[in-house]
């Protein structure tokens, strides 16, 4: 990305050195290098610039490369006549993206899966296609019509993937609800989406224990349910109007897919907001192209690959995984259990995963327990990390778990993007904990509080970009994303996203979390993520969360640190606070003083694994001060 006008290049941090450098022959074989040759550019930066200056041509190449099937062709790729904030993608086309998910050889793996303690199993492309068709036929037989919203409260299983694609093939809309949600949260999401039915499982098995799913639906007063058993048959009695999975499925699949317009919804997902009702975000028939293109050109997914990414269809990475793998003629590998232990790490080995997706807190857990020790992860070509800011030491450790090292493709975006806006690439050196390219086909600008281009500030997207949402259910989309935003350095319309981003070296960025997690300490602005990154280098620290709280009598905000410490290592809070203060003084700013340190067993997180700092702030203020060690 070019430097914004009037902004000088940042001074490189001496710690920013690559932990992985691609070989020349390795670069040549990447999907990104193929596109470079196709369009006549010789670097990743030039390829990105070309992709945003020639958006229609870029997406035409994606559609052709992935062999996306249309029932009626599009008249052009992009019609911008309604403005960059409301573009029309693929006007005049008719398609059903589910049809493009079965292009791999019929006998090749589509889904590899394993239950806790069970054998590795395979569902082929042909088997998946048949099951998807049976789901679509079952929906039609029960009178569901195109456009109907059908919810899913299920773990990520082979059957869940088939149900998801079957809903889409029938022209209906899948409503993803994470299986960790409790009845009140389930009820809100069913209402917002207008769901007329729901697929669920009788119970959820984790660590040999059973957790309620169907029972939670009953408490949420859900619409009629189709209930899958964990075993051969469910022993749970169903309420009147609900249906067993085996009774729902017809023997003969529906062969045809219902044609839809590119702008028609296929999925409703929800933001993981920590207060108030979540945003209900529709994905359209074009959003999967964004998922697949990012995977193709950034994670370098190829036909025959195997993708492992612990997730759920209630969060964007679940649908992302479906389309990132199947539209690229690759397979996904699903583990029916917690990903935190050695059994999951052995599953990665046995599935011969070529891409392993993670969240940084999961990596930290593996590192503390040494879960992958002695396993063979040599089939991996790359890791990819998303969901929260990465710890460079943890990512450097992860890279070393695959023998001679593999890159970590950092990936940051959102549900309302359908993928990432900033990420990594296999064509450039990997510096742990940093991004090394904007995502192809999309662009952004970093602005300071005065709206000027800056090396560190709030990031705004520059539309149009395929994958960006164009509506919200029950909310004013324009008010949420466009009202009150500044204009870009060249007069561009900007779209609010809310992330804090820093250009730390030419071509390398580091995320600092949400802009609303930025604090002002003694007149100096700093993000929670910046402080947490420094504190996590202190010996004995598991996880940290930094918040700023106002003193009771007014004045500057005070810094409060929540710390998760491993139970097997007793901690002296005062000694730990002293070590943390020394780390902040040495690596960040001597003016930042820790006022209070609170030792906890765990940090509150949303179901998508984001730390709820706002919740910590409310807890702290609600209990009065001081709450922890009262260091200030």
What does this structure look like?
- The two termini are 43 Å apart.
- The N terminus and C terminus are likely disordered.
- It is built from 18 helices and 30 strands.
- The longest helix has 17 residues.
- Among the domains are: 142 residues, Rossmann fold, CATH 3.40.50; 102 residues, GMP Synthetase, Chain A, domain 3 (2-Layer Sandwich), CATH 3.30.300.
- With 632 residues, it is an alpha/beta fold.
- α13 crosses α14.
- It is globular and about 70 Å long.
Name the strands of the widest sheet in spatial order.
4-3-15-14-16-17-18
For the terminal residues, how far apart are their CA atoms? 43 Å
Strand content: 15-25%
Note poorly predicted spans.
Answer: 1-8, 624-632
Mean pLDDT reading: 91
CATH architecture of one domain: 3-Layer(aba) Sandwich
Per-chain topology:
Elements lengths: L23 H5 L2 H9 L4 H10 L1 H12 L11 E2 L8 E2 L19 E7 L5 E4 H17 L7 E5 L4 H12 L3 E5 L5 H11 L3 E5 L1 E4 L2 E4 L1 H6 L5 E4 L14 E2 H4 L16 E6 L9 E5 L2 H11 L8 E3 L8 H10 L4 E6 L5 H9 L4 E4 L1 H10 L12 E4 L6 H8 L8 E3 L1 E3 L4 E5 L13 E2 L5 E4 L8 E6 L15 H5 L13 E11 L2 E7 L3 E4 L2 E4 H8 L7 E7 L8 E7 L8 H15 L6 E7 L12 H11 L9
Parallel strand pairs: 3-15, 5-6, 5-7, 6-12, 7-10, 10-11, 14-15, 14-16, 16-17, 17-18, 29-30
Antiparallel strand pairs: 1-2, 3-4, 8-9, 12-13, 19-20, 20-21, 22-23, 23-24, 24-25, 26-27, 28-29
Helix pairs in contact: 5-6, 10-11, 13-14
């Amino acid at each position: 990305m070019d430097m914004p006008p009037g902004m000088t290049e940042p001074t490189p941090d001496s710690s920013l050195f690559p932990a992985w450098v691609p070989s020349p022959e390795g670069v040549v074989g990447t999907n990104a290098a193929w596109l470079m040759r196709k369009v006549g550019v010789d670097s990743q930066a030039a390829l990105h610039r070309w992709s945003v200056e020639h958006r229609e041509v870029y997406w035409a190449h994606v559609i052709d490369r992935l062999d996306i099937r249309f029932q009626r062709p599009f008249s052009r790729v992009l019609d911008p006549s309604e403005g960059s904030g409301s573009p029309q993608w693929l006007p005049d086309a008719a398609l059903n993206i589910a049809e493009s998910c079965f292009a791999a050889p019929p006998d090749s793996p589509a889904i590899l899966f394993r239950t806790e303690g069970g054998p590795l199993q395979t569902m082929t492309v042909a088997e998946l296609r048949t099951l998807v068709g049976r789901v679509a036929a079952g929906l039609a037989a029960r009178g569901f019509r195109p456009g109907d919203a059908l919810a899913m409260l299920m773990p990520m299983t082979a059957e869940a993937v088939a149900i998801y694609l079957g809903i889409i093939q029938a022209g209906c809309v899948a409503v993803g609800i994470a299986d960790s949600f409790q009845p009140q949260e389930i009820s809100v999401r069913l209402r917002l989406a207008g769901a007329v039915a729901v697929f669920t499982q009788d119970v959820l098995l984790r660590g040999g224990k059973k957790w309620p799913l169907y029972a939670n639906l009953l408490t949420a007063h859900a619409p009629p349910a189709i209930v899958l058993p964990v075993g051969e048959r469910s022993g749970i009695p169903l309420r009147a109007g609900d249906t067993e999975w085996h009774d729902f499925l017809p023997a003969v699949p529906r062969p045809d897919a219902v044609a839809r317009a590119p702008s028609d919804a296929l999925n409703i997902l929800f933001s993981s907001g920590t207060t108030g009702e979540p945003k209900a975000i529709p994905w359209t028939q074009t959003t999967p192209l964004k998922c697949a293109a990012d995977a193709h050109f950034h994670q370098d997914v190829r036909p025959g690959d195997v993708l492992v990414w612990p997730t759920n269809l209630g969060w964007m990475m679940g649908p992302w995984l479906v389309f990132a793998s199947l539209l690229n003629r690759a397979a996904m590998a699903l583990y029916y259990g917690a990903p935190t232990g050695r059994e999951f790490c052995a599953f990665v080995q046995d599935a011969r995963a070529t891409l392993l997706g993670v969240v940084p807190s999961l990596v930290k857990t593996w590192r503390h327990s040494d879960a992958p020790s002695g396993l063979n992860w040599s089939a991996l070509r790359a890791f990819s990390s998303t969901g929260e800011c990465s710890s460079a030491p943890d990512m450097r450790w992860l890279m070393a778990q695959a023998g001679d090292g593999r890159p970590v493709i950092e990936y940051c975006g959102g549900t309302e993007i359908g993928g990432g806006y900033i990420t990594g690439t296999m064509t450039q050196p990997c510096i742990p904990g940093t991004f090394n390219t904007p995502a192809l086909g999309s662009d952004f600008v970093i602005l300071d509080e005065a709206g000027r281009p800056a090396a560190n500030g709030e990031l705004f997207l520059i539309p149009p970009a395929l994958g960006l949402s164009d509506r919200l259910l029950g909310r004013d989309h324009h008010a949420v994303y466009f009202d009150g935003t500044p204009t870009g350095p060249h007069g561009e319309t900007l779209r609010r996203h809310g992330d804090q981003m820093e250009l730390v070296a030419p071509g390398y960025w580091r995320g600092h979390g949400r802009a609303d997690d930025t604090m002002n300490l003694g007149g100096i602005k700093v993000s929670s993520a910046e402080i947490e990154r420094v504190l996590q280098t202190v010996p004995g620290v598991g996880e940290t969360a930094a918040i700023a709280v106002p003193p009771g009598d007014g004045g500057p905000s005070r810094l409060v640190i929540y710390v998760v410490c491993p139970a097997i290592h007793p901690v002296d809070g005062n000694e730990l606070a002293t070590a943390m203060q020394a780390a902040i003084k040495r690596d960040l700013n001597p003016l930042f003083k820790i006022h209070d340190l609170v030792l906890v067993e765990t940090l509150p997180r949303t179901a998508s694994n984001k730390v709820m700092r706002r919740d910590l702030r409310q807890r702290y203020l609600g209990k009065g001060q001081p709450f922890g060690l009262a260091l200030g």
